[in-house]
Amino acid sequence: MTRIHFYHLSAGQGTLASVIARLVIQARRRRLDALVKVESEPAAADLADRLHQLFTDGTTISMVPDLASPVVLTWTEETGPHHGLLINTAAGVPDCFSRFERLAELVYDHPGLVADKRDNFRYYRERGYPLHYHDLSQQQTLLESA
Question: Domains in the chain and their CATH numbers?
């Protein structure tokens, strides 16, 4: 059964990229692939630029349609062969979430996103998924300096 973690961030895109980078690094250490779900292609391009600046270990980031890469940013429902870690920055429950070992739901201050993530939390809880909550809002300066 998919383990679901909610991460509450205090800020937007800067902190978001730092947290995603840390989650991807942890997943890669566990030999898990990572798929990052974003709202749109422009959001994926922006996040890819931010992540490339954070990865100093040679980690490559691909965007759809290159689903064979171990780290992929996608704005579609395509998952390719991925089944390790799904990081959801988009609104709504991803259709494919249950095929992943882990799901990270990132909650940050963006119009309407907090309410959508609350709905996601209820959806998972009502179906009996194990839920974990991590409040990273007090660690913003630590995350941004990483």
Answer: 3-145 (3.40.50.10110)
Q: Rounded to 5 degrees, what are φ and ψ at 144?
A: -70, -25
Tokens 């800067």, located at residue = 14
Please give the Cα distance from 119 to 115 (Å, whole number): 6
Q: Cis check for the bond before 65: say yes or no (omega within 30 of 0).
A: yes
pLDDT tens sequence across 51-101: 888 887 777 888 876 777 888 999 998 888 889 999 999 999 999 999 999
Residue 142 pLDDT grade (very low, low, confident, very high; cuts 50, 70, 90): very low
Q: Name residue 15's amino acid.
A: T
> CA 110 to CA 113: how far, in whole Å?
5
Taking residue 48's Cβ as centre, other Cβ atoms within 10 Å add up to: 18
Euclidean distance between CA atoms 73 and 89, whole angstroms:
11
Nearest to 27 by CA among 61, 65, 78, 67: 61
